[in-house]
């Protein structure tokens, strides 16, 4: 069973639809810690404000995710779901992230290289420095395009599985063991996105 | 590198894609789901479906069409036409849209922008603006509603700024002066709006060639451009169009 965590942050239809299209039989959209604990895989989607992740703590989902990933359940965070894996975000400083990865998510700078930088960062951008040992990005070549829409971003670290350039480099995909995240929307990223979701389903 | 987006737009009436040639002689151009997939496979970066019936009776048909179109579409998918409330938007999202485009209803009640954005995120709300300026300064361009029939007395640049403040994720800017001419986008107007807001601006109206797209991306500072009739006239498909725009020096996503 794949548990797709619903924390009332945006639209889950597309993610669920993509997982089912790729052959996932048993997809459960849930807010119940029990479902997270018994799931074979966990997906945390989310578009919207980092503040929304406070609900994960309130519903005791944070503890359930911590326990599930500790016993090895594969976890995929998408967009805000990736950002939540870090210590937190300047978007909602009073809300803690899971802290699985070190660092804070920060807003894109207003200028870069003496040019104004628009945010949100919306559209198709390329994946660079794809880590060859990434299981999530297996078969994805550097330079392949994926679809982003976000104003906050995660820093580059040793756990970065792919970087994207916009106002400097940020983490487009992160992976350590069974815990993974993508800043882009694989469910909206055509063939490349489907490859990523398929890799996750096949873990 | 962030690429500029080419967005394929399908005008839908009664569950079928229609095309108008110079706004008359509306003819059937096919099934929305089939055409959306063809565009996505051909390299369109996004699909927009505009319901041009937008009547009460047409809503059920539209939701069915959205559901069918979204079923196997894995690129961003926007639906517009007749969305007057957060409930209307929720129904369209539930049917599989990623974004909604609102126009007259946002002018009538600007709070609607924040209401939809509050539940679904700013990235899900596109405010569409129909603009007319004749030969006047682009900063004086006026907003029109009701399919371009009614002037509002509001200036386009100011309305775009307000829409951004109220939480719009993108602006879809249609030049009524350029629309249907196939003489190129209104680059001056697009640039005026693009420089006034931080959010992406999608240019629409006037596309007749790949060179027009390159112009609106460079001179017009557009983040994306809408292509509708250019495909119907058999001029090109996205793949050909994007290759030509890329050759003109604009960053494009060129699928293999």
Record the SSE blueprint.
The complex is a heterodimer of chains A (203) and B (256).
Chain A: E1 2-5, H1 13-21, E2 27-30, H2 33-38, E3 41-44, H3 54-58, H4 61-70, E4 75-78, H5 80-83, E5 88-89, E6 104-107, E7 111-112, E8 115-116, E9 121-126, E10 145-150, E11 152-153, E12 160-165, E13 169-176, E14 179-182, H6 190-201
Parallel strand pairs in A: 1-2, 1-3, 3-4, 4-14, 5-6
Antiparallel strand pairs in A: 6-11, 7-8, 9-10, 12-13, 13-14
Chain B: E1 5-13, E2 16-21, E3 24-30, H1 32-41, E4 46-51, H2 58-70, E5 77-80, H3 86-94, E6 99-102, H4 104-108, H5 111-120, E7 125-132, E8 142-145, E9 150-155, H6 156-165, E10 170-175, H7 187-196, E11 201-204, H8 210-218, E12 224-227, H9 229-232, H10 238-247
Parallel strand pairs in B: 1-4, 1-12, 4-5, 5-6, 6-7, 7-10, 10-11, 11-12
Antiparallel strand pairs in B: 1-2, 2-3, 7-8, 8-9
Helix pairs in contact in B: 1-2, 8-10
Walkthrough of the structure:
The complex is a heterodimer of chains A (203) and B (256). Chain A starts with a strand and ends with a helix. Helices cover 23% and strands 29% of the residues of chain A. Chain A has a 7-stranded mixed β-sheet with strand order 2-1-3-4-14-13-12. In chain A, strands 5-6-11 form a 3-stranded mixed β-sheet, with no helix packed on it. Chain A is built from 6 helices and 14 strands. Chain B contains 10 helices and 12 strands. An 8-stranded parallel β-barrel of chain B has the order 1-4-5-6-7-10-11-12, surrounded by 7 helices. In chain B, helix 1 (32-41) runs parallel beside helix 2 (58-70). Chain A binds chain B through residues 9-11, 13-14, 17-18, 21, 47-49, 118-126, 145, 147, 149-150, 165-166, 185, 187-191, 193-194, and chain B through 1-5, 40, 45, 70-72, 74-76, 93-94, 96, 98, 120-124, 169-170, 198-200, 223-224, 253, 255.
